[in-house]
Amino acid sequence: xxxxxxxxxxxxxxxxxxxxxxxxxxxxxxxxxxxxxxxxxxxxxxxxxxxxxxxxxxxxxxxxxxxxxxxxxxxxxxxxxxxxxxxxxxxxxxxxxxxxxxxxxxxxxxxxxxxxxxxxxxxxxxxxxxxxxxxxxxxxxxxxxxxxxxxxxxxxxxxxxxxxxxxxxxxxxxxxxxxxxxxxxxxxxxxxxxxxxxxxxxxxxxxxxxxxxxx
Amino acid sequence: xxxxxxxxxxxxxxxxxxxxxxxxxxxxxxxxxxxxxxxxxxxxxxxxxxxxxxxxxxxxxxxxxxxxxxxxxxxxxxxxxxxxxxxxxxxxxxxxxxxxxxxxxxxxxxxxxxxxxxxxxxxxxxxxxxxxxxxxxxxxxxxxxxxxxxxxxxxxxxxxxxxxxxxxxxxxxxxxxxxxxxxxxxxxxxxxxxxxxxxxxxxxxxxxxxxxxxx
Lengths: 215, 215
Description:
- The structure is a homodimer of 215-residue chains.
- Chain A is an alpha+beta fold and 215 residues long.
- Chain A has two domains: 4-82, Glutaredoxin; 89-204, Up-down Bundle (Glutathione S-transferase Yfyf (Class Pi), Chain A, domain 2), CATH 1.20.1050.10.
- In chain A, 53% of the residues lie in helices and 7% in strands.
- Chain A contains ten helices and four strands; from the N terminus they run E-H-E-H-E-E-H-H-H-H-H-H-H-H.
- Chain A has a four-stranded mixed sheet, with helices on one face.
- In chain A, helix 4 (89-105) packs antiparallel against helix 7.
- The longest helix of chain A has 25 residues, at 126-150.
- The radius of gyration of chain A is 17 Å and the shape is globular.
- The two termini of chain A are 30 Å apart.
- At the A-B interface, helix 3, helix 4, helix 5, helix 6 and helix 7 of A face helix 3, helix 4, helix 5, helix 6 and helix 7 of B.
């Protein structure tokens, strides 16, 4: 199977999908798009992904998968080993909840098009954007820290000692936070798990600076 | 199994979970929280759900499930009939992608705490909040309309003739849009599917005005 990953090095959702593909041991062709230059707004790209977002995962037969979490669930179903979700329903619910806290409560509020919109509609400058970005990270990372620090299900990683879907989202978000110099100092469990993950090649090689289009 | 649904009538994520429970034919005790009165910010509620968000689904053994989509996936795994996702991996990826377009690109930008934040940080008044809300709905509903209108997989509902996860998100979002008087007129396929869904008791009974705390 030849996979083409249409993505952007700094995109958090692209980092997620790169980590998932690496964990599954799947090779892919890296196709970079410069978001700020509108390269995902072309008719060709929009025909593949009407949202004009990255990442898109193109399969050999031309089928295109969109939305990073839907694509990762597809990877999990079609390439079950190694698993990115626990086998028990309770564990799966916990891992998905941790992942969605990031994917539904932080990232959507802090991505590039939202920051642009704050500038366009409210004249938000870099400082105001940083305040906005930091607010949403803090609100959810505080709760995430509590949930990770107080649960016996937390292990070396977010859930036990196997890296999975929640770790993928956590790792990508910690990278994204660096855009506004947000460190993990305030969240010791998140910091510890991030450090563990960064020692794994599947994650480290998915990090933004290690991509061919990194600048 | 006795389930307690901690929720709020107007919350879009609560509407999703009510529809899913109804589709699965599961009874639940309805526990309402007035979000504007801070009833989900109490120590008791935060102990159950550290994010202070609705909905939370409490099981008889005291286990609490958070994040509506994680909870719905749990329902799907523990109560497979009737299914809310197709059986094939491609179909599941499509339905999840449609669902996440709403759950990750519209709702997180438009919920109550975001509108409050726009007021606090940018002095956004009702008109500015409406402009913001409408912008994000339009951006994603335009793409969703294209994807639904051009796919042979679209049937009576978002995917074939069985209502599922994407329909749950679509139905809840159309209701949420009414907060700012956004109709479905611009999106004929979305409008058609919403009308079909609203004829199903599982959806209609999940709608905000049909809840005990509706005002």
